[in-house]
């Protein structure tokens, strides 16, 4: 078998918004073409998928994934029980 470089015309350039959870470093990738290349639309789409900021009595986080938000909610429920 003979290997060669990929033909450059076969490579596509894409704009992607990357949103990273500050608690676990999980990343959400949103293609700009599906959200009209607007950061506000990216934030709204992330929120629709459960990504939010939050604030509790003792901490705040500007970006958290659904799993980490659930964990914080469970920890708060335990602390208040």
Automatic annotation (TrEMBL):
<protein>
    <submittedName>
        <fullName>Uncharacterized protein</fullName>
    </submittedName>
</protein>
């Amino acid at each position: 078998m003979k290997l060669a470089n990929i033909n450059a015309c076969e490579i596509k350039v894409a704009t992607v918004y990357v949103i990273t959870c500050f608690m676990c470093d999980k990343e959400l990738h949103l293609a700009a073409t599906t959200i009209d290349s607007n950061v506000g639309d990216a934030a709204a789409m992330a929120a629709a998928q459960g990504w939010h900021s939050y604030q509790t009595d003792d901490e705040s986080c500007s970006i958290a994934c659904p799993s980490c938000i659930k964990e914080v909610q469970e920890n708060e429920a335990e602390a208040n029980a």
